[in-house]
Amino acid sequence: MALGAAHRNWRSDVRALVEYIESWWWYSNDLGDWTYTVANTYFNHPNVWPRLSPHDLGYVSVDFWGPGGRDDTIDYSLGNRIINYIWYETGSVPPWVRYYIWQRNMYGVRLDRVGTGEYWWERYGDPFDPTDDVHERHVHFTFWDQGGL
Q1: DSSP secondary structure string, 74-100?
Q2: pLDDT digits (tens, 9 = 90+) for 98-137
Q3: CB atoms within 10 A of CB 80
């Protein structure tokens, strides 16, 4: 699956959240050292955006990677910390989570259910297909676009 060109042109509330998370330093027991995340988005990201919105969702979607950026595996515990922060600690304030994908799981919230605690869940991808990105190496978020820029 080809992704568009990487960029960092997010809507202002998404940009603020990304910049805050990128400021974190996290001690990784797996690495035995400090680590951090680098985020990006792409044009035509996610690639299913035409089914979700009349607008390219790249400005409200973000991938969190390891310190090397795109394609550098994020530390597992840092990925979990990002999920917990965005999903649980900021879940009732914009930018509102549309869905996230991490470790072969996809969780999402319908726009009319934001703030209610209701969400949906499904397994994501085919772990037996080497060409299928099951999001074990990075955390993906798409936030509600609410009609474009």
Answers
A1: PPHHHHHHHHHIIIIISTTSSSPEEEE
A2: 999 999 899 999 888 888 889 999 988 776 776 666 688 9
A3: 14
